Each structure stands twice: as structure tokens, then as C-alpha cells.
């Protein structure tokens, strides 16, 4: 992390030096291309000599600026190479950590499979023990309950649980704004869609859509009656 920050600081310095070199180049070009008003009082020979010296010095300065700019670009390329190497190293470390996490996940899943297999081994014995532990007349003669009572209670609770789960999870059968008491009517809705698919009113429609359809039907009916009256007249 510290190395990455230092590399970014160096990159910021490079950008600052680049802006300084660009400003310096513009200044030298301005001095080279702009005539000095003080040269107007000199003789032609002195003016030519001064312009020659100025052109030579500005050319040298521009060449030096170009050399520094090339050196800066080379340093910038090297810096980018180092930054890419750092980022690649970070990505490699992240990949190693992700690989270790994947291996740990595989080990956990293998352990869960072993637990599931162990549970499956003892499941028949647990079921038999539960059956023989029931207080019903068929097993314990002094008990009041029977297997019929057990089956009736178990089946009713199972059906009620399945009914509630489907009512809460039936999002694809009803619109998002459907109240809960309508969701509990999911068996009737499924039967209606199964045996009467061409019904005029869809349970998934919003109340506003139903009202709009009713208004359209009413307007159409009114216009039909007006047409009949006009024809009779």
C-alpha cells in the first residue's frame, strides 16, 4: 500500500514537471517570435547580430526542453511499468487468497456431505424410534389416541403449512400490490386460470386498469346508443 502511494506521488511530480516544461517552451517561443522594442534604436548590424544570438539561444533552449521532455516520457513509461507490476502482484496475491478461500469452501462442503450421509444412515432408525414412541392404541393399548388421529393432525398441519408458504411465495401469480387475503386464494386462482382461461377479468390486473376498462366499455356503449338514435332520426 505504501509503495503504491509513493508511485502515485512520483507520477504526480512527473505531471507537474511536464506542465512546467510546457510553460517554459511557450515562454521561449514567445521570446523568439516577438520582436524586442529596444532593438529599434540599434543599428541594422547590431540588430541582426542580436536576432542571430537570440535565435541561437532560443533554439538551444528549445532543444534542451525537448530533451528533458523525452527523458520525462521515458521515466513515465518506466513508472507505468512498475505500477503495472505492483498491480499485477496485488492481483496475484488476491488470486491466491481467493484460491485458499475456494479450497476452504470445498472442504466445508465435503464436511457437510459427510454430515448429510451420516444423518441418512441414522434416519431410518430415528424414524422407527419415533413411530414406536407414539402414544397410540395400536402400539400402547392404554393410550387414547390412534393412528388415524395422528394422520389427520399431521396431514392438516402439512396442508396448512404448504398453503401459507405458497401464499407468501406466489409473487408470479399476483401483482405486487395484491393484499395478503387475496394471496391465500391461490388455489381458486390457479383453477380459474386452468379451466377458464378466457375470463374477462384477470386477477393480475390492478384496480385502476379494471376501472379504465369499464369506462372504455361504458363510453363505447354510449356511443353505440347515440349512433342508433341518429339512424332512427
Automatic annotation (TrEMBL):
Protein location: Membrane
GO molecular function: metal ion transmembrane transporter activity
InterPro entries, sorted: CorA_TM1_TM2, MgTranspt_CorA/ZnTranspt_ZntB
Regions that span the bilayer: 115-135, 147-168
Membrane topology designation: Multi-pass membrane protein
A cellular component annotation (GO) from this entry: membrane
Organism domain of life: Eukaryota
UniProt entry keywords in alphabetical sequence: Membrane, Transmembrane, Transmembrane helix
Pfam families given in the database record: CorA
Signal peptide segment: none
Protein name: Uncharacterized protein
Source organism per UniProt: Candolleomyces aberdarensis
Lineage of the species this protein comes from: Eukaryota, Fungi, Dikarya, Basidiomycota, Agaricomycotina
Amino acid at each position: 500500500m505504501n509503495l503504491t502511494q509513493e508511485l502515485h506521488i512520483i507520477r504526480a511530480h512527473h505531471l507537474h514537471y511536464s506542465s512546467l516544461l510546457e510553460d517554459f517552451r511557450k515562454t521561449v517561443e514567445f521570446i523568439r517570435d516577438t520582436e524586442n522594442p529596444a532593438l529599434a534604436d540599434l543599428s541594422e548590424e547590431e540588430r541582426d547580430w542580436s536576432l542571430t544570438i537570440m535565435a541561437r539561444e532560443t533554439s538551444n533552449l528549445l532543444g534542451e526542453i525537448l530533451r528533458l521532455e523525452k527523458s520525462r516520457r521515458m521515466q513515465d513509461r518506466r513508472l507505468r511499468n512498475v505500477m503495472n507490476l505492483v498491480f499485477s502482484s496485488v492481483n496475484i496475491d488476491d488470486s491466491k487468497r481467493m484460491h485458499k478461500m475456494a479450497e476452504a469452501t470445498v472442504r466445508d462442503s465435503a464436511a457437510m456431505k459427510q454430515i448429510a450421509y451420516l444423518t441418512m444412515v441414522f434416519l431410518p432408525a430415528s424414524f422407527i424410534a419415533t413411530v414406536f414412541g407414539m402414544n397410540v392404541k395400536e402400539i400402547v393399548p392404554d393410550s387414547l389416541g390412534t393412528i388415524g388421529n395422528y394422520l389427520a393432525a399431521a396431514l392438516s398441519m402439512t396442508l396448512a403449512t404448504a398453503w401459507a408458504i405458497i401464499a407468501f411465495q406466489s409473487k408470479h401469480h399476483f401483482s405486487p400490490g395484491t393484499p395478503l387475503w387475496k394471496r391465500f386464494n391461490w388455489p381458486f386462482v390457479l383453477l380459474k386460470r386452468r379451466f377458464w382461461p378466457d375470463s374477462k377479468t384477470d386477477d393480475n390486473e390492478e384496480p385502476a386498469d379494471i376501472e379504465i376498462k369499464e369506462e372504455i366499455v361504458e363510453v363505447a356503449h354510449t356511443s353505440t346508443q347515440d349512433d342508433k338514435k341518429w339512424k332512427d332520426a
